[in-house]
Write a structure and sequence with these properties.
Blueprint lengths: L1 E6 L2 E4 L4 E9 L6 E7 L6 E7 L6 E2 L7 E6 L4 E6 L8 E8 L13 E2 L3 E6 L1
Parallel strand pairs: 2-11
Antiparallel strand pairs: 1-3, 3-8, 4-5, 4-9, 5-6, 7-8, 9-10, 9-11
Length: about 120
């Protein structure tokens, strides 16, 4: 089993930055793909960014490409999402997720572990 705990959310103004963290514990060696999702009120949950534990297959949703950066610190078992030039449409609950499969798609069946979420609010 793997436990994921997000932190770092908050309220910022348009153009601001935040860094989200996701601390993993448990059987972290079972994880191959790690990711960030978000869900805004009234909208479907969408994939934001993902990366394999070996650093390969880094991928971003078109809406955040160039503004967000996913990274991880294997020694600390921590995943990060650096968010820059935030926009009101980035407002959502952000979740980290992990898969026992290698990164390949956003398929819901691939995600074995989820965090509780951290709220990001961007005001204009």
């Amino acid at each position: 089993q793997v436990q994921l705990v997000e932190s770092g959310g908050g309220s910022v103004q348009t153009g601001g930055s935040l860094r989200l963290s996701c601390a993993a514990s448990g059987n972290v060696y079972s994880v191959h793909c790690v990711s960030w999702f978000r869900q805004a009120p009234g909208e479907q949950r969408e994939g934001v960014a993902r990366i394999n534990r070996d650093g390969s297959s880094e991928y971003y949703a078109y809406t955040v490409n160039g503004r967000f950066t996913i990274s991880h610190n294997s020694a600390k078992n921590t995943l990060y999402l650096e968010m820059n030039n935030l926009k009101p449409e980035d407002t959502a609950m952000y979740y980290c997720a992990a898969s026992r499969l290698w990164c390949g798609s956003w398929s819901s069946a691939a995600w074995n572990y989820w965090g509780q979420g951290t709220q990001v609010t961007v005001s204009s």
